[in-house]
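= Tokenised fold =
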Amino acid sequence: MTSRGKESALPGSAPHYFAVQALKQKGLDPARDVTFIQTGGAPDTLAALVSGAIDAATLTAPMDTRAMALGFHAVVSGRELRLPYVATGIVTRRSTVQKRPGAVGQFMRAMAEGVKILLTDKETTYKILGKYLRIGDRKILDAAYDGEIKVLEPRLDIRPEAIQAILEHVSSVDPRAKKVLAQDLIDRRYLDEMQKSGFFDQLWAGNR
């Protein structure tokens, strides 16, 4: 990319974070060598790429597969970079946990059961993805599933280094983030309870 290159990624989003890190690894300055343009959601971003409105785009599955089917080429794979990052996290207020601990616990168990379905029941997962993403192409679903499933935490584990990476990224625009520690944002009580009670072992019995 040159200083005229235009890349699509919403500032603060996971695609933007990965684009910034990838550029840095290639010796480019994200603030100087690239102009980031907000194009909307993933379908809008792909449309902008196809129309030539942008020179490159950070796309997540399954839009990356669609782009390559249209003749575009992957320059960098986010999975290959192996960057610590929380792509999707479960967040709530401390006051909510204090007021409704039982409801939060039930929610966490439901999430754990959902992750198991994702990892062990591909056909059900495809039906749900196809319905809400409006995708019926099996090859695209396969590519999206095979790529993303590898980075899911089977037991919803929280990695402090992944949260710390986000804080460091945010600190470039908000110095207050430098004063926050990853551990201050982590509450493992429900994960620990599911582990100690045998919930996880029972859930995964016969699978892992």
DSSP finds eleven helices and three strands in the chain. The mean pLDDT is 85. Residues 6-81 form a domain with the D-Maltodextrin-Binding Protein; domain 2 fold (CATH 3.40.190.10). The chain has two domains: 6-81, 94-203.
